[in-house]
Amino acid sequence: MPLTPVLTQRFGTEQPWRIENYEHLDGYAALRTSLAMAPDELIALVKESNLRGRGGAGFPTGMKWQFIPQGKNGQPSGPHYVVVNADEGEPGTCRDLPLMMNDPHSMIEGIIIACYAVRAARAFVYIRGEAVHAIRRVTQAINEAETNGYLGQNILGSGFSCQITVHAGAGAYICGEETALLDSLEGKRGQPRLKPPFPATNGLYDAPTVVNNVGTLASVPYIVRGGAAWFKQMGPDGSPGPCVYSVTGRVAHPGQYEAPMGTTLRELLELAGGMSRGRELKFWTPGGSSTPLFTPAHLDIPLDFDSAVKAGSMNGTSALMIFDTGDCVVRAIQKWSDFYLHESCGKCTPCREGTYWYAGIYQRLENGTGTEEDLETLLDLSDNILGRAFCALGDGATSPVTSSIKYFREEYLAHIEEHTCPFTTARTLASAGARAGAAS
Ligand SMILES: Cc1cc2nc3c(=O)[nH]c(=O)nc-3n(C[C@H](O)[C@H](O)[C@H](O)COP(=O)(O)O)c2cc1C
Ligand code: SF4
After folding, report:
1. For a tag on the chain, would you pick the N or C end, based on fewer CB atoms within 10 A?
2. Rounded to two decimals, what is the model's pTM?
3. Does residue 346 have its Cβ closer than 6 Å to ligand 2?
4. Cβ distance 419 to 411 under 8 Å?
5. CB 113 within 8 A of CB 224
6. Is 393 touching ligand 1 by the criterion CB < 6 Å?
C-alpha cells in the first residue's frame, strides 16, 4: 500500500525536534503565511479542510474555532485560551507522544496559528506527568521558538503576541476529558463539568477556550501550506486527512502507522507485518478500549469517523489493539474493567458503582465462579450506565462489555460451565506438556 507520510514526514530525519532542522524542512513557513491572513480567513480555511479532531470524538475543528465569540470588530472583550490535550490516556493509544518527541514544532506551530485565529494570547499544553521526556522536549522546543521570534511579543513583526505554558498533569485518565482537564489546569481536582456551557464560551478561568488534541493542531500547518483541497484528497470527504494509527498486540511489528483516514485493518495488518504468532485474528479495537470490539468480519471497514460508527463501533483514538485465537476475551475485558474502576472519578453513581460491579463480576467469571445470571447483570449494568453517566468515560466502559458479549457469548458460557478460564487450562496443559517433554 503506497504511503505519503504527512504528520510523520520528519520522523527519522536528523534530529527533527531541533528548530534549525525543522526550519530547514519548511518549518514555520505556515506561520508566516497565517500571520499575513485575517484570523477569520484561517478559521474558514480549517473549516473548508474538514479537519476533525483527533482526540476521539471527531468534532469539526474549524467549527469549534468559530464558536469562540470574537468580540466587536475582532477585538475580544476578555482573554481567550487555546488548551492542548496531550494527556493521551486511552489504553492502546500512542501517537501524541511520538509526535511530541519527534516533531514538537509542528504542534507548536499549529498552536500559534490556532491562537492567532481565535484571538488568544495564551496557550497551555497539558501533558500527563509520567511523560517527563515529552515535557522536557516540548519545553525545550518552546524555548527555541521564543528565541527565534515565533513566540512571545510581536511575533515576526506582525503585532501578534502569544505565550505557551507546559503543564504536567498527575496521570489520571479522566483528566483527558476536556472539562476535567480544565479543572485540573485550574488547580482543582480533575472532574468533568456539566455541559453546556461548553468550553468555547466558558472554558479555562470561565473564558472562551479551544481545547484540541496534539494531532489536530499538528495537522494545521500542513493545511495552511497545502490548502484545503490537498488535505481533502486524503481519505473520505466526511473525515479526511492523514491519521496516525497505533497498531499493537499480536502483530509482527507493533507501532505507529500513518495512513489516510479510512484505511482498513486489512491494509494496516499488511504494514505491521501480519499476525505475530501464526494464529488467526480473533477480535480488535478500532479506537482504544472505549470503542466497541470488532472481529475478523470487520477487516475491510474503512477506519474513519463515519464508517466505523456505521459498522457499530467508533474510530476513537485510532488505537488498534489486536488479539488472536489464543487470547481470552473475558480476560481482556477484565483488565479493561479494572482500568475503568481505577480511573472512574466517582462523581456520578452509574459509573462509580457500575465499574465496581463490572470488576467484581469479571473476577468471578475469570476464576470460574461466575454464573449465567452474572452475564445478565453485566448487560443490565451496561444499560444503566450508557447514556446515564455524567461523562463519556462511563459510556466507554460499557463498550467492551456489551460488544464482547454480543460476539463471544459462547466463550463467556464456557467460563461458567467449565468453572475455569478455558485459556488458562489450555496454557497449563501446554506448559505441563512442555515440562514433561523436557524431563523425558
Ligand atoms: C475519559 C476521556 C478521556 C479523554 N482523553 C483524551 C486525551 O487523552 N486526549 C485527547 O485529545 N482527547 C481526550 N478525550 C477527548 C476530549 O474530551 C476532547 O474531545 C478532545 O480533547 C478535543 O480535541 P479535538 O477536537 O482536537 O479532538 C477524552 C475524553 C474522555 C471522555
Ligand atoms: S462517568 Fe461519572 S464517575 Fe465516571 S468519570 Fe465521568 S463523571 Fe466520573
Report:
1. C
2. 0.95
3. yes
4. no
5. yes
6. yes
